Amino acid sequence: MDFKKFLEIESKEAWKKYIPTLSIDSVIFSFHQNSLHVLLLKMKDMESWGLPGGYVKKTENVDEAAVRILKDRTGTENIYLHQFHTFGNRNRSEDAFADYDDDIWYKQRFISIGYYALAEYSQVNLVIDEFSSAVEWHLIDNLPEFMMDHRSIYDKALLTLREQLNNHPIGYNLLPEKFTMPELQKLYEGILGKKLNRGNFYRKILRYDILTKLDESRRGGAHKAPDLYSFDLEKYNSALKEGLKGGW
Q1: Average pLDDT over the chain, rounded to whole?
Q2: Pick from 145, 131, 127, 128: which is nearest to 45 by CA?
Q3: Which of 67, 69, 84, 111 is the least crowded, having the fewest Cβ atoms under 10 Å away?
Q4: How many other C-beta atoms can be found within 10 angstroms of the C-beta atom of residue 53?
Q5: With 0-12 CB in 10 A as exposed, 13-18 as middle and 19+ as buried, what is 202?
């Protein structure tokens, strides 16, 4: 069965199962090999890439739908998820289905609720479903062409991530349990999109008193093994309530 015929069949079920005109798009970030990544998929019969998304069942709440969609795509639901914006411009998705009849579900005008998710790289199992031909992590510094308005959704998610860096547990949810100070700095640089002075960054982070220095170091490198740290979660959450003071 070709993909167009498949979508036409699925469309009839979608009209019965989901709330019309409402969708969810998720921007899933992860940190791997000192670089920030975003999860993208390629829909069958399309060359451009898109964000993982889906629709809200008539029997579920919006946040429940977001968790379900995230689990379907990553194989896990234990991921930090935050609703950040609503997208509703005219013709934001219709053009992608220009060759289909006007009554097909996927060609309707959808208001999309945007969520960003923070996933530890090692905990994610990428899932290709019947709608997609590829699901991959992409470096945020080397992104492909996006479908529909998904580039705008991604840009807004990254901007929100930057704005919330000082009052949301972003580092805790993107880094492994044990990490080095250079890895933490690389994470902040990846989110902020700029280089940070090492000495200033270290002093500021240590002044917040949110880290625990562990009695072990990262082995295997050619240079002196860097010390390992972990977040003191109680102090971290307390500091985030007031906001980490000062810009980066």
Answers
A1: 90
A2: 131
A3: 111
A4: 23
A5: middle
